[in-house]
């Protein structure tokens, strides 16, 4: 489990770091080109949009890992011991079902899109390529929720907050 955790951490960090770097460079280059030469690269806005979607969905997986998703914890804070543990387990199981089913249905949408070959307007790439971001992010979230369920039953194996960051 620790090896999987390290591999996922590294993958998420590299993907998000690279995407943010590319977004920053594309925006910088486009701004310079527009102000100095009166022209820009026509596909940068679309590429930046796709990369920001990638950052959002991979970032959602990191939020699961760090426990930083938005939550209403009124009931959770009232509970103690086993009741708190069971509520957490139920929440994570619901999240696993939701993210796994959304990943599955997004794959169906991608399959439909592959048949009709819709293309991105500026980049002229098949739209199923950027659509792959959705099942990737949801699959990562599903894995992270399964890890959290594992850590409920084996709390000694859970990485510390510093390791999770």
UniProtKB/TrEMBL annotation:
One of its GO terms (cellular component) is plasma membrane. Keywords: Cell inner membrane, Cell membrane, Membrane, Transmembrane, Transmembrane helix, Transport. InterPro entries: DctQ, TRAP_DctQ. Residues 24-153 form the Tripartite ATP-independent periplasmic transporters DctQ component domain. It is found in: Cell inner membrane. GO terms for biological process: C4-dicarboxylate transport. The chain crosses the membrane at residues 14-35, 47-65, 86-107, 127-146. It is a multi-pass membrane protein. The keyword Flavoprotein does not apply. Pfam families: DctQ (PF04290). The keyword Transmembrane applies. Its main location: membrane. GO terms for molecular function: transmembrane transporter activity. Belongs to the TRAP transporter small permease family. This is TRAP transporter small permease. It comes from Halalkalibacter oceani.
């Amino acid at each position: 489990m620790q090896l999987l955790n390290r591999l996922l951490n590294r993958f998420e960090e590299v993907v998000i770091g690279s995407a943010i770097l590319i977004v920053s460079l594309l925006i910088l280059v486009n701004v310079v080109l527009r102000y100095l030469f009166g022209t820009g690269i026509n596909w940068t806005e679309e590429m930046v949009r796709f990369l920001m979607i990638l950052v959002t969905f991979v970032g959602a997986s990191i939020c699961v890992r760090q426990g930083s998703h938005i939550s209403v914890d009124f009931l959770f804070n009232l509970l103690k011991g086993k009741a708190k543990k069971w509520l957490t387990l139920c929440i994570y199981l619901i999240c696993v079902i939701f993210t796994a089913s959304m990943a599955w249905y997004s794959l169906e949408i991608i399959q439909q899109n592959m048949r009709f070959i819709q293309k991105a307007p500026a980049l002229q790439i098949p739209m199923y390529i950027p659509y792959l971001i959705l099942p990737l992010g949801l699959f990562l979230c599903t894995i992270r929720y399964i890890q959290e369920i594992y850590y409920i039953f084996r709390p000694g194996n859970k990485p510390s907050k510093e390791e999770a960051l």
